[in-house]
Each structure stands twice: as C-alpha cells, then as structure tokens.
Write a structure and sequence with these properties.
Shape: globular
Strand content: under 5%
Structural class: mainly alpha
Number of helices: 4
Distance between the termini: 49 Å
Radius of gyration: 14 Å
Length: 82
Amino acid sequence: MRKLQILDTDSLCRSLKAEIPRSAEACFVHRLHCLLLMGEGYSSIEIAHLVGDDSSTVARWARHFNDFGMEGLREDCKTGRP
C-alpha cells in the first residue's frame, strides 16, 4: 500500500484550521477528535501540539465532557462572557 503524501502541508493546515470555526458542527467534531486522542492516551499538551490548539483549551474540553457529556462539547454550551 502506498502512503498518501500531501505536497503543501502548511497550506493544508492553514486551510483546515480556518475552516473549523466556520461551522458549529465542525467545531464539535474537532473537539470529539481531540477527546478521542485523549482516550487513546495522548496528553492535552500532545493533542494541542498535533491540532494547533492551546493545551488549556483541550483540557477545558475534557472537563466540559466530564461535567456535561457530549453536550459539553457543543458551541452553545460555552461558559463565560458572550
């Protein structure tokens, strides 16, 4: 099996990171992926490095998941000032 290669990874990463916040559902799925990695044993620091988020943000998503379940990962479940 041939390994997939992406020629312009910088451009790909920028495009994907710009697309995630455009949709509440994409944000939710992104957070699910991060927690899946956490479930596989990655630390919040490792996950943050992989996906380009802050480690405290990843840890907050884990806390929200622990406190509120799946709904804690949704956009409309944000805490703090609107």
